[in-house]
Amino acid sequence: MENHSQDRPVKIFDTTLRDGEQSPGCSLALPQKIEIADALERLDVDVIEAGFPIASPDDFAAVSAIAGKVKKSVVCGLARCRDEDIDRAWEAVKDAKHPRIHTFLATSPIHRKHKLHMTKQQVIDQVIACVRRASGYCPDIEFSPEDATRTEPKFLRDVVEAAIDAGATTVNIPDTVGYAVPEQMGAAITDLRRHVPNIRQAVISVHCHNDLGMAVANSLAAVKAGAGQVECTINGIGERAGNCSLEEVVMAMRVRRNVYHTQTNIRSKLLVPTSELVESMTFPIQRNKAVVGRNAFAHEAGIHQDGMLKHPRTYEIMQPKDVGRKKSEMVLGKHSGMRAVTDRFSQSGLPWSREHASLFRTKFKELADRKVANDKYVTDAELLQEVYYPVVESIVGKPFVASVVPDKRKKGQPLTVQIRTRDGRTIVGKASNLKEGVIDAFVQGMKGTIPGLNIPAKGLLLTNPAEGSGGKARVTATMHNKHTVSRTVEGTDSDEVIKEAHIAAFNTLYAIEEYQKLIRNSANGKKKVQ
Question: Within its chain, how far is the Cα of 55 from the centroid?
Fold first, then answer.
C-alpha cells in the first residue's frame, strides 16, 4: 500500500467482472468470477463491480455470491435507470458488507434521439426517480451519465447536479465510446468542479474506453483535474478496444507521483499475478503490454543491455519486484551485445576472457542470425552448446580423450577400459563394482584428471530413434564438478552413442578446466610483467 500523507487518495473501481467480461471472448463461469474477485480483494481495489444482475440468472448468481464472500472491498451491481434493474441489483448486493448500486442513463444528443427517444427533462426526471429509488436501499449510490463526453456541457452539469441532489454519492463521467482526448477529459472534470454547486457532496469518477488508445491518458487527465475515482479493468480488457488498464493507471500515478500527487491502496506487487490469472481465463495480452507484458522488463538491444547491467535505472523506470515480476530479463538475440552474452557466462559460473571476446562474438552472431528464421531468441542451452563450448574447445585444442576401448571382462572381475589421450598416453579405468560397465570404468579412470568429477544419477537422457531419423538415437550425457556440462550425440548403436556422449561431455568439462587455467596463468603473467 502506498503511504504518502501529503498525496490525495484516488479510489480504484475495478470493472473486470462487468465491463471486462462483456468483451467478446471473455465470458466467465461462476467459479472463475469468484477466483478473480478474491484476487481483486487481495489487490486491495476499493470497489469491485461484480456484474449486471438483471442481465441473466448467471450474472445475478455471480454478483450475489461475490457479495456474500468479499469483506474489504465495496461490491457493486450495475443497473439501468429502471425500477426493475435497481430492485434486482439490490437483491444481488444486499448481503455485501459494503454494497453499492451503480445506475446509469445516456445523456448525449445521439443517445437521447436515437436510443432513448427522450427529451432532456425526461432524462433528468428519470435520473432523479431512479437514484432516489436506489438510495432507499443503501447509502452508497453511483450514477453515470452514459456517453458523457459527447453530452452538451451545460446539460451534463444539470444531470450531475440532479443526481447528487437525489442521493448519488459518486458521479461517474464515462467516455463510453473512447471519443475524448486528454485535454477534453481534464476540462470536463474542471468544468463540473467549478459549476456544479453540490459537486463536493460526491466523488467524481471517470470511466474511459480505449477506442483511440487514450483510455489511460484520459483517466490520468481526469485525475489531474480532481477526479477521485478511476474505473478500470485488469489488462485493460473490455468492450471493443477495452477499458482503462488498472495496472497502467496505478503505476503511472505511483511512478509520476510528482505530477499527480495521488496515492492508491493497490498492492502493486500483486499486479503481475492478478494479470496472469485474468489472462489465463480470458485471452492473451500482447507481449509489449505496459507494466505486465512479457516484454515490459525484457531487453534485447545491446546498448540497453549494457546500460541495464551498469545500472537498472538507465532503462527501467520501475523495478520488476514493484509489480510482482521476479527480475528483469536480458533476452539474447541478433541485437544483443557481448556484455549480455558474457554476463550470462558469468551468471553460469563459466570462465571467459576479454582476450577471446571476438571469438565468442563471431560464434554468437552466427547463431543469433540463424535464429531469426524461427523463434528469434537464443536460449541458455543453445548459448552453451553452440557458442561457449565450441569456442573454449577451439582455444584449448585437441580433446583430451581420443577413444575408450573396453577390455574383455574376466569372470568375477569388474570391467576395465583403455582410455587413449590426445598426447598418446593410455589410462586404465576400472568399474567400481561387477554391475557397472564402460561408463563407470571411464569415469573412475578420469577422476584424477578432473577433481570432483561426477555423473548425476539422472545424467543420461536416451531418445529412441524417431520415425524418419534413419534409425538414429539421441543421447544427452551430463557430468559435473563445479561446472555442469551436457552434450548430445546421435548414432545408430545406442551403446556406442552413450559412450561417445560421455566422452564428449568429459572433453568439454576438461576444456573448461584447461581454459580456466589458461586465463589464470595469463593474468598472473601480466601481474609479473607489471
Answer: 33
pLDDT in tens, 431-483: 999 988 998 999 899 888 888 888 776 677 877 665 445 667 788 888 888 88
First to last CA, the chain: 56
Q: At 483, is the secondary structure helix, strand, or coil?
A: coil
- Residue 497's nearest CA partner among 446, 463, 458 is 463
Structural domains of the chain ordered from first start: 8-281 (3.20.20.70), 298-395 (no CATH), 401-526 (3.30.160.270)
- Whether the predicted pLDDT of 224 surpasses 90: yes
The identity of residue 430, as a single letter, is K
Residue 23 to residue 212: CA distance in whole angstroms:
17
Q: Is 110 helix (H, G, I), strand (E, B) or coil?
A: helix
pLDDT in tens, 365-392: 999 898 876 767 899 899 999 999 999 9
Cα–Cα separations (whole angstroms), residue 252 to 42, 55, 146, 462: 20, 34, 26, 51
Task: Give the CB-side neighbour count of residue 242, counting CA atoms within 13 A.
Answer: 19
Per DSSP, the residues of 118-172 read --HHHHHHHHHHHHHHHHTT-S-EEEEEETGGGS-HHHHHHHHHHHHHHT-SEEE
Grid cell for residue 61:
448468481
Question: Per residue in 81-111, is it b (16+ CB within 10 Å) or e — as a string?
Answer: bbeebbbbbbbbbeebebbbbbbbbbbbeeb
Q: What is the mean pLDDT of residues 502-527?
A: 87
Rounded Cα distance, 208 and 216, in Å: 7
Give the three-state DSSP class for 102. Answer: strand
Whether the model clears a pTM of 0.85, i.e. scores above it, the answer is no
List, for residues 195-223, the tens digit of each pLDDT value: 999 999 999 999 999 999 999 999 999 99
Q: What cell numbers appear for 501 in the block?
A: 556422449
